[in-house]
TrEMBL record:
Pfam families: FeoB_associated. This is FeoB-associated Cys-rich membrane protein. The lineage of its organism: Bacteria, Pseudomonadati, Bacteroidota, Sphingobacteriia, Sphingobacteriales.
Amino acid sequence: MVQTIIVILLFAAALFYVGRLVYKSFTAKKSCGSNCKCGVDFSNIKP
């Protein structure tokens, strides 16, 4: 009985971990990650 509970808990933890990885891969990131300079502050640079 105890072994079954341990296996079920490990399986649930693995499902949670994989679900979290999938969720993080589909959520939007704060920065675009390309070379567009969208996160750079140009206010201190004189034209």
